[in-house]
Amino acid sequence: LIKRRLLIGDNQEVKSIRVVMEVACARFDVELPALLSKLRDDRTARCRFVICWIAREVLGLTTIRTAELIGRDHTSVSYAHKTVGEQSAVDPKFAAALAAVQLEVKARLKL
């Protein structure tokens, strides 16, 4: 319930993180309720990690603000950001998926 409330609002950060979630969920075939749940399967976790990375790198949000918006703690966001950077450096398929999400988010948000 608390996580759902975090996504309600019309300030720019909330709108932007919603777009990131929509794009990442579509790319990684994850339903939004699963993303906001405590599920930790590989696909859901990977999607969450990408959202954290995009929020930091594309939207320029702080670790703490990203954590507030996605309903996680800031250490999880930091770990996700680090992991995505490392994984994209060694896994070309993952790097391509990350780049596709990044491009679509930038296009939808006109960044």
Low-confidence stretches: 1-5
Mean pLDDT: 91
Helix content: over 70%
> Helices and strands, in N-to-C order?
HHHHHHH
Global structural class: mainly alpha
Overall shape: globular
How much of the sequence lies in strands comes to under 5%
List the helices and strands and how they pair.
Blueprint: H1 2-6, H2 12-28, H3 32-36, H4 42-57, H5 63-70, H6 74-90, H7 92-109
Helix pairs in contact: 2-4, 2-7, 4-6, 5-6, 6-7
Notes on the protein architecture:
- There is one protein chain.
- By secondary structure, the protein is mostly helical.
- The protein contains seven helices and no strands.
- It has helices at 2-6, 12-28, 32-36, 42-57, 63-70, 74-90, 92-109.
- Helix 2 runs antiparallel to helix 4 (42-57), helix 5 packs across helix 6 and helix 6 (74-90) packs across helix 7.
- The termini are far apart.
Key structural traits:
mainly alpha; about 110 residues
Quick structural overview:
This protein is mainly alpha-helical and 111 residues long. It is built from seven helices and no strands. The longest helix is centred in the C-terminal third of the chain and has 18 residues, at 92-109.
